[in-house]
Amino acid sequence: MKTSTRDIMLKAWKTGTVIPAFNIPYLPMMAPIVQALEQTKAFGLIQVARLEWEKFGAQSLESIRKEYEKVKNESYTRLHLDHVPVIDEDDQRVDFESIIAEAIALGYESVMVDGSRLELDENIAATSRVAKMAHEAGIPVEAELGAVLGHEAGPLPPYEELFATGRGFTDPAQARRFVEETGLDWLSVAIGNIHGAISHAAKSQKKLQARLNIEHLNRLRDATDVPLVLHGGSGIRKEFLIQAFKQGISKINIATTIRQAYESLCKDSLQKAQEKVYNVAVGLITEELEVAGSAAVLLPQ
Per residue, what are the HEC states of the chain? Predict the structure, then answer.
């Protein structure tokens, strides 16, 4: 019987092992990511967020699902639905429940609802509805509390100002209530991490190097007692990542680094673009995240 994503994540949490989750904004990126996981014997999630079929080339939930069926290796991969916002980066309301219901019907093995732009009570209500839907289908749900900035229109405030003031950081007391009242399985937190820009003007720029407030992470870990997730994982200094994995971060989202690798070559040569994605992913798995061989830890052999 196939090990569930929920059980794999709980094993990662208990062993201090992180699961890299690779976003697929363009379908040809998926095969080299799966190959990189196979070659390094690491376990990872293949995932897509709503903005990746709205603003990039992922096409649709169904297209990602069909591509995954072609290249999946369940000794090393599962399929996850990343950010489905209640209010998106353009401040528009989204029919999030229909999107998540479609993903569940298509066989996605875990889902995420993002109500982080809502007031706390409304975020709790939206997340609770999705948790009920997901759990009835037998799959786990991820949600977000706090503001992982970077996808909004317009420039970010200076990063050092954001970090020093803790603007948008997840509040531990709110996080405790959020987990208790929603029944979520994993919580995406803000502790200094930021998303890579997606605007046409900024999407190719080098992502600034973020830091993590490990003391704040420890408070969140103690308050929530569930696996925690780090969005905006590209570009964070390694010493902070390694500490975070020991303190409750069980999943890290990787998007900007692999997307920019693909975009830098795809117009000239699809093969070279795929090779670059593969090489970048192998480097991330082996050197940055140090999770080569993690499948043996997380899945029954």
Answer: CCCCHHHHHHHHHHHCCCEEEEECCEHHHHHHHHHHHHHHCCCEEEEECHHHHHCCECCCHHHHHHHHHHHCCCCCEEEEEEEEECECCCCCECCHHHHHHHHHHHCCCEEEEECCCCCHHHHHHHHHHHHHHHHHCCCCEEEECCCCCCCCCCCCCCHHHHHHHCCCCCCHHHHHHHHHHHCCCEEEECCCCCCCCCCCCCCCCCCCCCCCCHHHHHHHHHHHCCCEEECCCCCCCHHHHHHHHHCCEEEEEECHHHHHHHHCCCCCCHHHHHHHHHHHHHHHHHHHCCCCCCHHHHCCC
Give the model's pLDDT for residue 271.
Answer: 97
User: What domains lie within the chain, and their CATH numbers?
Assistant: 5-298 (3.20.20.70)
Tokens 């196979």 belong to which residue? 38
- 82 labelled catalytic: yes
Tens digits of residue pLDDT in 171-198: 999 999 999 999 999 999 999 877 655 3
Catalytic residue from among 7, 82, 91, 121:
82
